[in-house]
Amino acid sequence: MTKAAVFGTGSWGTTFAMLLAGAGTETILWGRRAEVVEAIDRRHVNPDYLPDTVLPDTLRATTDPAEALDGADFVVLAVPSQTLRGNLTAWKPHLPPEAVLVSLMKGIELGTTKRMSEVICEVAEVPQERVAVVSGPNLVGEIVLGQPAATVVACPDERVAERLQEACHLPWFRAYTNPDVVGVELGGAVKNVIALAVGVAAGMGLGDNVGAMLMTRGLAEISRLGAALGADPHTFAGLAGMGDLVATCTSPLSRNRTFGENLGKGMTLEEVIAATKQTAEGVKSCESVLELARKHDVEMPITEVVVAVVHDGMPPGEAGMLLMSRSPKPERYGV
Ligand SMILES: NC(=O)C1=CN([C@@H]2O[C@H](COP(=O)(O)OP(=O)(O)OC[C@H]3O[C@@H](n4cnc5c(N)ncnc54)[C@H](O)[C@@H]3O)[C@@H](O)[C@H]2O)C=CC1
Ligand SMILES: O=C(CO)COP(=O)(O)O
């Protein structure tokens, strides 16, 4: 029987573990906090993140990384992106030599501008063929209700992608494979930044034309960065590109959109951070995405104003003026 160890008992780690267990994969969760782990293991509930969801009886949990990793075929990583390097360094001595490492994370590392799969390869010292990425329009609040959804499993080794696809595929959760890890990861990380922008606009009371403009021009930014980094342009028209962009930018369930909306309504950054209980990856990753874009000489004007609003205190109205007063261009400028 295929065995998976899922690291991170937050909303997506717990939900993806449920999907794996539901698909017949023997699954164990690792968490930091004993009380959460105990509640999952004994009472089949995650009181902090999914209090209304009954978890499968077969889903186990532990605080011991060695126990979680013992015999694991898949090691699924679902901690906040900026904590991955430190955590994985600690877990590395226990990693089974043949295990496939799977990233569920949608961020870019601050300081290094590395994608999560790059951090995994570097820290765990494994080749790209042993690292997979799962990304798509996968809002947890809908998946835990059993509503239909689809995702993308990306890995350069097609057989590894197919094994992981099989390990999480359910009648109501479709997993598609794609060899383009770069595109799938960029789609997931940058859509969070665009969702912050769409949220700010919504919070300011602006309408659907503005939302559509930001999403579409945001997709142009993602595609330009992807082209510079060697991604397959088709990926951005798929679930991990446009699909996740639309879901995150339009859903009230999105933490990134909600974060932006609160800023747009006039809350201070400190107030918004205090009101945000879960990980909104775009808040930190907007800076690393912008740095990555600058390294590759890619223009990302929406990302620039998101960084200015979220980190440098630029008023949202001024950010909007800056975007609207850019010089007129052909639509496919810079692509
Ligand atoms: N929630 C969602 O709808 C989806 C989330 N994702 C991505 O999955 C990743 C994880 O997000 P969520 O589970 O939603 O976040 P979350 O905020 O719900 O949970 C984060 C988990 O990480 C733990 N954690 C926090 N700091 C830590 C540290 N320093 N070391 C170890 N563990 C730590 C928390 O205790 C919690 O268990 C993110 O990159 C997110 O973008 C992807 C798809 C869907
Ligand atoms: O990635 C997600 C949906 O696919 C979740 O988005 P948020 O992190 O903004 O909630």
TrEMBL record:
It catalyses: sn-glycerol 3-phosphate + NADP(+) = dihydroxyacetone phosphate + NADPH + H(+); sn-glycerol 3-phosphate + NAD(+) = dihydroxyacetone phosphate + NADH + H(+). It is found in: Cytoplasm. Belongs to the NAD-dependent glycerol-3-phosphate dehydrogenase family. The keyword Cytoplasm applies. GO terms for molecular function: glycerol-3-phosphate dehydrogenase [NAD(P)+] activity; NAD binding. Its EC number is 1.1.1.94. This is Glycerol-3-phosphate dehydrogenase [NAD(P)+]. Residues 180-319 form the Glycerol-3-phosphate dehydrogenase NAD-dependent C-terminal domain. PANTHER family: GLYCEROL-3-PHOSPHATE DEHYDROGENASE, GLYCEROL-3-PHOSPHATE DEHYDROGENASE [NAD(+)] 2, CHLOROPLASTIC. It comes from Planobispora takensis. NAD(+) binds at G8, T9, G10, S11, W12, G13, R255. Substrate binds at K106, R255, N256. Pfam families: NAD_Gly3P_dh_C (PF07479), NAD_Gly3P_dh_N (PF01210). The lineage of its organism: Bacteria, Bacillati, Actinomycetota, Actinomycetes, Streptosporangiales. Pathway: Membrane lipid metabolism; glycerophospholipid metabolism. Its main location: cytoplasm. NADPH binds at S11, W12, R32, R33, Y49, K106, R255, E281. Catalyzes the reduction of the glycolytic intermediate dihydroxyacetone phosphate (DHAP) to sn-glycerol 3-phosphate (G3P), the key precursor for phospholipid synthesis. The gene is gpsA_1. Keywords: Cytoplasm, Lipid biosynthesis, Lipid metabolism, NAD, NADP, Nucleotide-binding, Oxidoreductase, Phospholipid biosynthesis, Phospholipid metabolism. Residues 3-160 form the Glycerol-3-phosphate dehydrogenase NAD-dependent N-terminal domain.
